[in-house]
């Protein structure tokens, strides 16, 4: 008997059902040092990991309706590291009892031929950017403080221009669906960063215009 | 003469026992309070308990130093009989603490000197102390005092050191800008403010999908994402409405997506 095509294989891996809980905020460049200092104190005892990533966002347009989006990321500081492919679901922001934005999240490590593969599948790159900054951890919580830069010449990550005078601050936790208690922990952690940074549940659709 | 001494010894031991019993009782009640009433226990009452204990210990010390108390140091206790069997009388006498009078526990209970290791340590410490001359010791004491007072000063006046930082935060010098937050969130969510780049390079000419992409392909920024209205469009593409609380549905929609895409757009139609 022939194996079914990959596309109709049921997804059985446990990690597929993970949700990402997210709070976002920003900090001005001049207050960055204070924030890093505070995070160093609050987070697990480790030196913050610096990173520099190049993210490419790919669209796949169906016959009708809206395109399907995948995000491919590669490390610029570790050229040999695998690419990272990520699917993010529709964010759920409506539930007032939940303190964080929740969305479906699928993470996959990929080989370096990922862009060619996506192109062959019919995906097209919509936009790209470079993010560099620091990662902190506290238990399951991840804090990413990053500066976003736009790429002036497509594909050339050397030639960039920063997007704003602030760093993006994101507090996220990956948890199985339905574990809303993690949002409580996130909120209490976010409280400790005030008034330096206000981490909030931000509906991205409101930032569109 | 000997009888009188004996009587005296008996009397003093008896009073010692009763004093020790007092200490034991107050310790007992204090521990009980700590374990069972710690929620209601106030600091002054804890201090009262400590004061009581300290007073009782002082009384015992006074009693031992009293001239009428014969020197207990001169009394010798010899274990006459060791037995590995349980002794009910002994257990009752010691409130079940010492049920057996055996070779294992006797050395511990009748010990008059510290453990050999402790004795060794003590000896080391005293030789160490003797080695340092009084002048050096004095100097060390002064350095330590200075360090302590410096530390205390720092702890008592934290404002001086942190003034610069906290003032910057408090005095209307914001550390973040909500507009920047929105711009950055927009940028990571759908590339708002990022230049659209569609490198033609990797796309082979004559690719079936290419024409459609160039002519009608919506960019991410043009796509409408369902806001609070519960509209289910956007990021997920042509996705069946994702029901809240049923995130397990999501993977299946991905699956159908890719499938339909491969059917309609893949250059090598199966």
UniProtKB/TrEMBL annotation, chain A:
It is found in: Nucleus. One of its GO terms (biological process) is regulation of transcription by RNA polymerase II. GO terms for molecular function: transcription coregulator activity. One of its GO terms (cellular component) is core mediator complex. It holds the Pfam family Med18. InterPro entries: Mediator_Med18 (IPR019095). Keywords: Activator, Nucleus, Transcription, Transcription regulation. Transmembrane segments: none annotated. Component of the Mediator complex. Component of the Mediator complex, a coactivator involved in the regulated transcription of nearly all RNA polymerase II-dependent genes. Mediator functions as a bridge to convey information from gene-specific regulatory proteins to the basal RNA polymerase II transcription machinery. Mediator is recruited to promoters by direct interactions with regulatory proteins and serves as a scaffold for the assembly of a functional preinitiation complex with RNA polymerase II and the general transcription factors. Belongs to the Mediator complex subunit 18 family. This is Mediator of RNA polymerase II transcription subunit 18. It comes from Myripristis murdjan (pinecone soldierfish). The lineage of its organism: Eukaryota, Metazoa, Chordata, Craniata, Vertebrata.
UniProtKB/TrEMBL annotation, chain B:
Residues 253-263 have a biased composition (Polar residues). It comes from the Eukaryota. It is found in: Nucleus. InterPro entries: Mediatior_Med8_fun/met. GO terms for cellular component: core mediator complex; mediator complex. Residues 238-248 have a biased composition (Low complexity). Keywords: Activator, Nucleus, Transcription, Transcription regulation. One of its GO terms (biological process) is regulation of transcription by RNA polymerase II. This is Mediator of RNA polymerase II transcription subunit 8. It comes from Myripristis murdjan (pinecone soldierfish). The gene is MED8.
